[in-house]
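Hey, does this match?
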Amino acid sequence: CPVATGSQTIGSINRPAAFCGVVGLKPTYDRIPRDGVIPLSPSLDHIGLFTSDIRSMQLVASVICSDWQKSSGSNQPVLGVIKGPYLEHVAADGIEQFWDVCRTLEEAGYQIRHVNALSHMKEVVKRHFLILASEAAQVHAHWFSEFSDLYHERTTHLIKLGRQKTIEEVTLALTSRQELRAQLSQLMKDEGIDLWVSPAAPGVAPKGLHSTGDPVMNLPWTHCGFPSLTVPSGFDEEGLPFGLQLASRWGKDEELLNWSLPIEAALNSIS
């Protein structure tokens, strides 16, 4: 399958792309129109893409994304690693592999700056799920009243939780999206950072069918709407794939993909 589409409300593009060893793009919020999609949370839903490599992603994104522009992205980007509670969500093997990836990129000539950010990670997660639950309850109100017995248990819980949220709570949470976007944008400007790099998931794919894994590493970029890209970054001892997540500024999807090409080449050396 050379290309596939997907949707991400928390991490359902970047995370499975890592688990499958492919490239996954969650564009800037609303860069791919959501027309015809049954929404879960309109403020958080993103339409994105899966391909086998960056060149393929550039071709497909140029056709599907709105107002795609050619961008050279010729200068080597400065990479930022977030210090603080964000990386604490990564499993032991995942963080060890991530530091190996960072060393590989530094050896390839990339400058990596370690910056304090997302110190309020717990609050970001809380607000994200508040928006998700509230909007899911609104969107599915009619269907749920008629077909509640057909909904998955987790979705049922989400909708019932969303019904309990007040307008004031939801308004505050929605405002936090713009605030986080502004904070991270300003921090990138102040620190001279072009791309944030992080693990695309806490570790490799979990065993079994009971869970699709934790999307927490993708959540901040979905929350603020920044474009984020998963690039394959190696394997564990059992041959399961890891993924590196790259996040760029709002609307800079073209630069993100151009900058990711040499990063992809550098990571191909990791076994």
Notes: The longest helix spans residues 167-191. DSSP finds nine helices and eight strands in the chain. The chain has a mean pLDDT of 95.
